[in-house]
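Subject: Re: docking follow-up (zinc ion)

Dear J.,

Thanks for your patience while I sorted out the input files. As discussed at Tuesday's group meeting, I've set up the holo structure prediction with zinc ion included as the bound ligand rather than trying to dock it afterwards. The sequence and the ligand SMILES I used are pasted below, so you can double-check that they match what you have on your end before we go further.
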Amino acid sequence: MKLIFLGPPGAGKGTLAVRAVNVIGVPHISTGNIFRAAIAEQSELGRSVKAILDAGKLVDDETTIALVRERLARDDAQKGYILDGFPRTIPQAEALAGFSAVDKVINFDLSDTLVLERLGGRRTCRKCGANFHILFGKPKQNGICDSCGGELYIRDDDREEAIAKRLEVYREQTAPLIDYYRKKGLLVNVDAGPSPDAVLENFKTSLDIAG
Ligand SMILES: [Zn+2]
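The structure tokens for the complex came back this morning:
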């Protein structure tokens, strides 16, 4: 089964992908792990990715597409895969259609309010980096890390303005993929609002997967 996972930041796509691969037995392929693997292998593409990332830039479409294409050509991806973080744009989706036929596109749907609540509630320890959440994983003592007693703070990424910015980029670049795949008859909507267990169940039901 060849699947693409779509969804806004905070929808838990990465976590769900890790759990879904155990259910359907195909590799989880994210651009993050492709980039890390290419860098570790020191291939020609890997070296250019490293240079781009070291310069603090975003990996361009052409390089990303070439790496995904190479990854999907490997043996373990022949019976299927879960693509997470790719495609991110319509040009990437069109390129993908040229070298792999996707079976379904799962859209993990989450309202902006819930995105803000999930991402904005995260608190990080300054000392040890542990994460807490003001609603879903409160520290025992307000503002203090359970593991080391360090001070908890809000990372710049988790500030409301930063989250709003990420949502804006998502709406502009990635959300059009929802329409694109709906028109092709490939889209499956799964509500990402409930707990990860319930979302995984809904995912299985909507794809008619047992177990
Ligand atoms: Zn700590």
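A couple of observations from a first look. The chain has nine helices and eight strands. The pocket of zinc ion is lined by residues 125, 127-128, 130, 145, 147-148, 150 (CB under 6 Å).

Let me know if you'd like me to rerun anything.

Best regards,
T.
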